[in-house]
Amino acid sequence: MRPAEIANQEIIDAGKKLQTTGKNITGYGLRRILGAGDPKRLKSVWDEYASKGKANKNADLRLPAELEDLVTELENNLIEQVRPLTVQLYEGALKAAQRQVSETSRELKQLRSEMEAEILDASTIIEELEQRLAETTQRLQESAVELKQVDKARYQFERQAITLEAEVRQLRENSTYEELMKRILALESKGKNG
Questions:
Q1: Residue 154 belongs to a domain
Q2: Domain harbouring 57, CATH code
Q3: What is the block-wise mean pLDDT of the chain (194 residues), using blocks of 10 residues?
Q4: What is the pTM assigned to this prediction?
Q5: How many of the other CB atoms lie within 10 Å of CB of 72?
Q6: 3-state secondary structure of 24
Q7: How many domains does the chain fold into?
């Protein structure tokens, strides 16, 4: 930070000059008189000086006893009025806070109730889906057993068909047409006689 170009006493002297002319004391007014400086700093130095001067003047003044008693009475009356006002403000703030807590609590209860209903609905849906899954799994297992049985039966029928086909082929190779006719007739007559 740069050192101040203008001493505080110079600023105070410039402020006093402005004061004697009856003009308001501003940072730019001080700068115009001094020819340099930051208006904010100039005004700050003057304000500090002016506030000290007022405090010193007030400290030196003594009030007459009657006026001092009146001021003391007014101070006491003011304190008596400030206390109930403060209590009233506190009560109002407390009621507002309680109302807000009550409202928030009610909203939270409603939200909790809604969430519990949602959870109950979700649980019901989950139970239904689990039941359907169990039923589907049972049907799938039953179908798998049936498929094995059908597969086993198909295998047996295929073996029988292969065996019959082999027998027919062997019969064709071993027998002539006439022999077949004789056998068929013999079997038919057996069936009639039997």
A1: no
A2: 1.10.10
A3: 75 88 86 88 90 64 76 80 84 92 93 88 89 94 92 90 81 69 79 68
A4: 0.36
A5: 11
A6: coil
A7: 1
Q: Are 46 and 13 in contact (CB under 8 A)?
A: no
Residue 126 belongs to some domain of the structure: no
List, for residues 146-167, the tens digit of each pLDDT value. 999 999 989 998 898 888 888 7
**Could you report the per-residue pLDDT of 42-64, keeping only the tens digit for each?**
899 999 998 887 655 555 567 78
Task: Report CA torsion sign: 117, 118, 122, 125.
Answer: positive
Provide the residue type at 138 as one letter. Q
Give the CA distances from residue 87 to residues 92, 93, 95, 131, in Å, rounded to whole numbers and listed in that order: 9, 10, 12, 65
**Which structural domain range is residue 13 located in?**
1-61
